[in-house]
Amino acid sequence: MKLNTAELSTTASPHLFSRRKSDWIMQQVIIALVFPTIAATYFFGFRVLLMVLVGVVSSVFFEYAYQKYRNIPSTISDYSAVVTGMLIGLSLPVTAPLWTIVIGTAFAILIIKQLPGGIGRNALNPAVAARVMLKVFFTPWITDWVTPGADAVSTATPLEYIGHFSKSVSAEVPNLMQLFFGFELGGNVGETSKFAIILGLIYLVVRGIINFKIPLLYVVTVAVVTGLYSSFDLTYMMTHVLSGTLIFAATYMATDYSSGPLTPDGKTLFAIGLGVLTALFRILFNFPGGVGFAILIMNALTPVIDRYLAPRIYGHKKRPKVLKTT
Amino acid sequence: MFAFKYKREGAYTEERKERTEHLPIEEAPVPDLLIFPLAMHIGKPAEAIVEVGDKVKMGQLIGKKDGFISANIHSSVSGKVTDIKEAATMHGIGTCIFIENDHKDTPAAPLFQGEAPTDKQARIKLIEDAGIVGMGGATFPTNVKLSPPPGKTIDTLIINGAECEAYSTSDHRVMIEYADELVKGIQILLDLYPIKYTYVAIESNVHDSIEALEAAIGDDSRIKIKELETIYPQGAEKRLIKNLVDREVPSGGLPADVHALVSNVSTIRQVYQTIAYGTPLMSRVTTLTGEPVKNPKNLLVRIGTPIQTLIDACDGFQSKPGKMLHGGPMMGKPINSGQIPITKGSTIITFLPKEEVVADERTPCIKCAECLNVCPVSLQPILISNAYEQGDIDEAERLGAMDCIDCGNCSFICPSNIPLLENIRKAKGEIKARKENK
Q1: B164 is in an annotated binding site
Q2: What is the reported pLDDT for A2?
Q3: What's the alpha-carbon Rg for chain A, to the nearest Å?
Q4: Contacts of B145 (CB under 8 A, 6+ apart)
Q5: Does the annotation place B368 within a ligand binding site?
Q6: What percent of chain A has pLDDT over 90?
Q7: How many angstroms away from the CA of A258 is the closest CA of chain B?
Q8: Cα gap B58→B82, rounded to integer Å
Q9: Which residues, other chains included, contact B336 with Cβ-Cβ below 8 Å and sequence gap of 6+?
């Protein structure tokens, strides 16, 4: 075969490209979310699948409809709306009415994600913002915790026993094994089994999707701050680590690309900040949901963090002075 | 177990070296007509000192260096000058000397008679006369590198055998087959400079060349082989210096600023040939490869040989090539003529299959930060690209656009197909243009 020079492309280097595209990355997050979805279905029944489905369908619908209405290219094929929908479906208790999920996804997709310009432009994590919004405005409907099982009784979440200035763990709190695996535990469906979440975390780290230091530093910081407060009462520390939505949020929400820092040092500060705020909210205030507020606050601080922690360039003595961070 | 690396300073590209890494170097056929671009090095083009109709001998000077940063050019065959005109070269259209080969290889007198000079300045002059430039692709005149300004002493010599581009195997073969000449070349430099540290930097994927070099080094304890992680762009000069001696070349500076001298293995081998036999730079090892090539080869090629001669030597193509590159797939220059000749910096001619030459549609940035993770000089490529697209050249400059080494990792890794390097290059262009206008 002869060389046909007319057929040669002459676009500039590089000439090879990684096959890891945005849609593939989002698919990996979806796969990682399957672990807590299975665990939640096991503990709370098939209604969990319905919740996830409603979350996904409504998220994708809102994104599609918004972009159709604004006459801009559709981005539903990047799967990011699916991720947001799954997260919202998994971050409510099994008793939450389905319409609260739809309100949550509408808020997440339309207000938080699309208004600032869509994927990559949102300053706040859509799923977290939606969860906090629901918590503030729709509390009676979404905080009716039940422990799984046929007799589904209303219970308090473990955090109500250890938060608000208590320094030790009372007898009502489920033991650490229960907290880890999620047996007989109330709460949002996705966060119950830490075991399943950690499987998802390992998957994301192995696939190179998330930066392991964010969940690690976040959780370790919570342990350290609660440790300092309780004179290192190990049960108290571990109960904090394993309670509430901490591990779930550290894995799937704190690692969100768009709402977190770009810079390596920024990521470190972001994760430590999350840990400190979460622990303080839990210790100081008598409400669950400290994780959500902590994430939103650190999201809001992200541009400032990135600006001052721009990496030092090879051959320079100081970090570059940067004015823009997006 | 928590030794996770969030900053990789490189990308794990596929190596794709398997088709040629074990093939011995073959002598390429010498064509009837050779083409010598006067600009086959960085700096000012050489000045033609022959005229159409002149008879030339093999090794005869045909282009004389013009200015401080420039290099001599010698004919690699004996024959007749048939033309001096503009033609396509690796670096665009430029003046070339065309020489018709008489296939007699009548040699010109070597660069010195009798014993080679031993004096340092005379040896550097010899390297200058021989037209030696960086044969790893940068083509910077070697004699200039060897003569750092006063006060900038050299204490570290790094021999760059970290051939990090995919497909590329010419340096690998040189290290195996010319290990002795390479080591003798290193020893020549060690005798000239009070060098404290001498490292041959090799990527961990080429064990056979490490063995060959160890055998050639023998008990010369001055020379150390450093095995480095196989990661692109491991062979980038600035990264090598950082990884081997933990020094950073200051922004806008040269390796000599941190007392280092980095030289490619083929260059050092040529230094040996020149000092030992008085031979000017007339040939080099070039790999011609890629999936479309029928029988890819590592070839010992006379400078001036058109690529088409090498394609024929490799029996043409087995599938349609989509791109022809002077260099590897990360930094190579796309070219589109088989008449372009091999020059001093031609390490590899890569052909990419048609199906790999796809322009994926750009999608919005998802802020994954991968471009930061893979940047070998710790830039924030996406921010420079954004600043350029917003027309904010000041911000692009503050973000360090000028420190970019063009490795292409950012564009390679971007999951959204954003032309990061292209935008950074354009930003660099505007920053330079603005400085010149001031």
Answers
A1: no
A2: 78
A3: 21
A4: B134, B256, B261, B263
A5: yes
A6: 73
A7: 5
A8: 15
A9: A5, A8, A10, B324
Q: Measured between beta carbons, which residues in chain B are less than 8 angstroms from residue A205?
A: 4
Rounded to a whole number of angstroms, the CA Rg of chain B reads: 22
Instruction: Tell me which of A8, A202, A255 to substitute to probe the interface with B (most B C-beta atoms closer than 10 Å).
Output: A8
Per-residue burial over B340-364, b if 16 or more Cβ lie within 10 Å, else e, is: bbbbbbbbbbbbbbbebbeeeeebb
- In this complex, do A18 and B11 lie within 8 Å of one another by their Cβ atoms? yes
Q: Is B220 a domain residue?
A: yes
Structural domain boundaries in chain A: 22-308
Interface test with A, best of B7, B380, B412 (most A CBs within 10 A): B380
Q: Which of B253, B311, B327 sits opposite A3 (nearest CB)?
A: B311
Long-range contacts of A167-176 (CB under 8 A, 24+ apart): A167/A229, A167/A230, A167/A231, A167/A233, A167/A236, A168/A230, A168/A233, A168/A235, A168/A236, A169/A233, A169/A235, A169/A236, A169/A239, A173/A239, A176/A235, A176/A238, A176/A239, A176/A242
Is B151 within a domain? yes
> Residue A172 — pLDDT band, cuts 50, 70, 90?
low
User: Of B215, B243, B277, which marks where a domain is finished?
Assistant: B277
Amino acid at B327: G
Q: What is the pTM of this model?
A: 0.91
Distance CA A304, CA B255 (A): 35
B96 known member of a binding site = no
Sequence-distant (≥ 6) Cβ neighbours of residue B174 within 8 angstroms: B25, B182, B265, B266, B269, B285
- Give the separation between CA A258 and CA B383, rounded to whole angstroms: 14
What total of structural domains would you count in chain B? 2
Least Cα distance to B281 among B65, B17, B51, B10 occurs for: B65
Q: Report the candidate in A54, A135, A144 with the shortest Cα–Cα distance to residue A98.
A: A54
Q: Which of A274, A259, A239 is nearest to A306 (CA)?
A: A259
**Cα gap B408→B406, rounded to integer Å:** 6
Per the structure, the complete domain to which residue B175 belongs is given by 120-277
pLDDT tens across A234-278, in order?
999 998 899 889 999 999 999 999 999 999 999 999 999 999 999
Contact B6 A264 (CB under 8 A): yes
Q: Which two tokens stand for residue A245?
A: 């939505």
Contacts of B295 in chain A (CB under 8 A): none
Helix or strand or coil: residue B247?
Answer: coil
Look at residue B12 and tell me if it is in a domain. no
Residues of A in Cβ contact (< 8 Å) with B250 = 315-316
The CATH classification number of A22-308 equals 1.10.3430.10
B99 pairs with which residues across the strands? B34, B81
Residues of A in contact with B242 (CB under 8 A): 314
In order, the DSSP letters of B23-68 are SPPEEPPPPSEEEEES--SSSSPPEE---TT-EE-BT-EEEE--SS
Q: Which of A8, A128, A321 is nearest to B311 (CA)?
A: A8
Phi, psi of B362 (to 5 degrees): -70, 135
Domain contains B326:
no
| Beta carbon pairs, A and B, within 8 Å | 205
Final residue before a domain boundary, out of B246, B277, B308: B277
B interface test, pick of A313, A318, A325 with most B CB neighbours within 10 Å: A313
- Verify that B150 and B258 share a domain, yes or no: yes
How many other CB atoms sit within 10 Å of the CB of residue B273? 20
pLDDT single digits (tens) B297-352: 999 999 999 999 999 999 999 999 999 999 999 999 999 999 999 999 999 999 99
Distance CA B329, CA B356 (A): 11
Q: By CB neighbour count within 10 A (0-12 exposed, 13-18 middle, 19+ buried), where does B130 fall?
A: buried
Integer CA distances (angstroms), B133 to A185, B71, B128, B343, B411, in order: 72, 7, 9, 11, 29
User: Residues for chain B: how many in total?
Assistant: 438
